[in-house]
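Sequence only, no structure available. Ideas?
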Amino acid sequence: MRTVRFHFDFVSPYAYVAWTQIHRVVETRAAVVEPVPTLFAALLNAHGTKGPAEVPAKRVYVFKDASRKAHAAGLPALTPPPTHPFNPLVALRLCTLPQPAEARRRLIDALYAATWAGGGGVESLDNVRALLERLGLDAAALIAAAGAPAAKEALKANTEAAIAAGVFGVPTALVDGEIFWGVDALPHLGDFLDGRDPMAGAALERWAHIVPSATRR
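Reply:
I predicted one. Tokens follow.
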């Protein structure tokens, strides 16, 4: 069975929308989704770029665009977290902890709802603790584990592997060495899994070797 690695960070509203949709795209094609918590800020640093929320002209547009995509996907209206960008480390590290696939999916669902569906955010330890308790989990043990070196190293390793694979943003789906970035790429992911990807190898090879004639200072 093929595995689609889904690189995500709770800080991205697009990753939230994509998370709610990717399972239908992948699982109806006899493949599985492997969620991979990935630190978006580290991707930006590695590629020398800014996040959309760090560019004033993009900031409000991105929220509007993500809200439109959420509406199109049949999701409730987006409710932004208390602050943005925010520190997602505890939430991401919780998702690296060893647990059954269904339990991890349920945890990610809850953390995303807390972030983008009016749940008060996931930066506050008190909010995260309350969320874990509502899920019937041992909040104290999980938060302690998320702060331990193993969880920190797991998130770092995920992010470094993503960078090595060419991932530059979230959400990104990665399968068979092919990258599909953003919510809008999910239909293309479906085509790829169906064996109907229209990309021609010769055209891609030519694109990869185009030489720039102008550069930006």
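The first strand starts at residue 2 and ends at 8.
Hope that gets you unstuck.
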